[in-house]
Amino acid sequence: MVPRHDHDGRPSVIFSYDDPVLPLDGSHIRILQLFRSGGDTAELQYASPLRCSLIETPIASPRPFKALSYTWGIGDRTHWIDVAGAALAITASLDTALRHIRSEEQDVMIWIDQICINQTDAIEKTTQVQIMEKIYSKADQVIVWLGPSADGSARDLDIESYYNKEKLSLLQSMLQDLKPSDEVGRNFKALVDRASLAFQPLLQAMIAWNKRSWFQRVWTIQEVGLCREAVFRCGSKIITVELVALACHAFDSSIARLSHNLPEPETLQILAAAQQRNSAHILGSRRRRQRFNQGLEEGETLLALLKKFFTERTSLVTYIPDRIYGLLGLAVDAGRLGIVPDYTDDDPCPSFTAAARAIIESGEVELLSYSQFPKERALERLPSWVPDWRPMLQKPFNHIHDRVDDHQFTSGGETTVTLVPTESISILGIRGYIVDTIEQVTSKWNGGDFQDRLSNFRDAQQLYELAMTKEDPIYDDPQRRAEALWRVPIGDLYDAGDIFSCRAPSAAKFHYDRCIALLEIAVTDDFGADAEEQMANYAKMRHFQKPYSTYQSAVSGLLGMRPFVTRSGFLGMCAGGTTEGDIVVVFCGSRIPHILRPLQGGERFSFVGEAYCDGIMDGEIVQRRPETTFLIVVSLDFDFGSLYKLLLPGDGRPHGFIVPVTVSRLPWTGDFVVNHERRFVQVKDAPSDADPSTWCNRAFQAVVDAIVADADTFKSVHGRHSEPFRVMGADYPVSIERFPAPLFGIGSRGAHMTGYVRTVEGLKIWVPRRSRHLFTYPGMLDTTVAGGVKAADEPWDCIVAEAGEEASLPIDYVQEHAQAVGAVTYVHKNDVKGAVFPTVLYVYDLEMPETMVPKPMDDEVEQFLLMSVEEVTEAMLRKEFKANCVPVMLDFYVRHGILTAANSTEYLDILTRLRRPLPIATSPRAGN
């Protein structure tokens, strides 16, 4: 039976997951019974409607079924499948897959996540994802759907006759260039030979095959890795996973042969692209998991899998936490780590934080090297020590193959990773040792031309000469101290094969000297003054080329880092974001040092990155320094993880952050849920007949009324009602009065306009002094025109109104000449008031003629002062300005060329701090 459709084409009966409802204990799954196709011809069979039913079965002993591994695609659910007479929307990619997979002879029993899991039920989805390992392990077969045939894939997958146990050894011999004796073997050997005879078209097809979206998707890794049997299907062609693995070996063999023949540059590019594929890693993880199940090897930890698929590789997900959840099934330490998928929280940061903490607690502190900056925008609020596992992370400088146990460095000696309890999961409390404070850093090493490379070496040599002036006995052997000159640029590591590294041998000094010599010749004008000198220099360069290349190859592992020297004279290479004043530390159990940035007070730190520090890479610092505790937090100077999120009904995004003591004091009503375990306060869902906007506003107002009535407890509200402020990012209009808004930690919107005049003496700025009877900041200096943006207004409305009311400026002139120039964002936490202030200030400029003089109109401004830039700067340094006016003024300085990199060493720090990422939702969700 095919569902009936209304006149607009939408089915009249929509499928509901009410029957059967899966138990929430994860004991059962749904299986799709895909009915056989209809029609007399292949075309009619393909086009006939998709029909199925859903059957519930226990996961412990399920009825026989297959599972589908595929990609959802990027489109909406525009197609339909008939589920027992009702219509269920599916994606176009799944529609295509099902039409190829269904049989004309019998029904197919198959598990498909898009249909067998209620994707709109976060609780069911969470429960089912937690048993994903069991689902794919229990499946009789996993069908990997790569999509319709294209790019030569059908031709190169037409080798299904190869798969049987007897042929596997034969195929292995083919790869060793032995002579196959049967026709099938000769056909497969021809597949290898084609890469040599007509390599470009074949390799292009291989590249296109590996670019199929299935190979880029995280979930596919465990889907094919956990099952007993898997087949790849591309259009109508089918091949077993074992043969795909052998085909990969065949192509690798051909690529190696072609590379040795020194092909043309165009071919070299194709060969390089052909080797950049996820398929080899995916199949390698499957093999390792199968061998783990057989007790033949240890398998891969979660950290090993994360490193494999996110370091210099692209692995994609739709839901960001699936970067972690999608690999849990394959991780042999998943049970020990205790990471449980949770799809009920729209904020991905807790998932990443919990996973990072669990991995470090397990002893793998090297995870910290993968916390790299800048973080992905959706994860900007992550604690500084937590990796975002975005695609194409950089390899750590000491990266080696994940199966090598003989690591080159042991900075932490024989110590083990030791964590200490903290008040929040976002704060990493870890024991370790302070090495020293960084005194000077030079520019990043980014490769570049000969001149750039020589400049990098000269910068490092200057730091070396500075270190030599230090008298601290940081080395036991003076000769070893001198070796830092050539060991530091390569991180004391040298190539020892395809995947191995060793400590730099003494020959590296010879290579270093030749490298410098070649670079000095290369930057010489015309290679010399005359023909004789030029010929001699050419000869030297040819002679120096091999040691130069060897040393530069080692240097390439540290690109993006920068040389440093500490106050005591330690030399090393540090993460690119390191600045003077940061500290070098060694954590207990760590192989390498890391860089931390002390925050206000010096008791807490922000994580910066990894480091090589010459002279302490073998545990020396453990005997020289006392062990201490480091509290590593977010990059801001307070921790959002210790606060309570303010949530709206059905919206897991935080709209505010509330201080714990404030949560305990606020007079919550029955319209709110206060969850102390997960640290959130949420407005309860509105009744079905209630308007959600009205419901939320009424709930907040009841609490606000009680706050205003209790003036003794909440002194910052002054016992007064105030104008409403909009809750930014809400899907519908929600507001809270201005005075109590910071208690709820919601974002505030302000508008500031700087009025300035160009005079013969230079640029001058109109600065108002606030009235001394105001509740807030009495008598302090302010921005020319400023005000809070009311709930019903936009920033421009505020500026126009305040320009007239506060400064008596002609409205027509303001409307015509005021320029919107951006915004300043920041977050402030006031522990005395128990309030959090996420703030966005919309910034405007107004150039005014000398004849236009602002005058106080209301009682909020005492007087206007026309001040020079020097006078304004001095007033800011004396802290005469209201606090939030300072970033607005600094932004004005930057935009008008008053503050530049040439006249301020803090220029970049100021730029980055003027626009801090806000921890709250700032815009409604799509569709609202």
From TrEMBL:
Pfam family membership, one: HET
Residue ranges of domain Nudix hydrolase in the record: 748-891
UniProt xrefs under CDD domains: NUDIX_Tnr3_like
Gene Ontology molecular function terms on file: 8-oxo-dGDP phosphatase activity
Protein name in the entry: Nudix hydrolase domain-containing protein
Organism of derivation: Verticillium longisporum
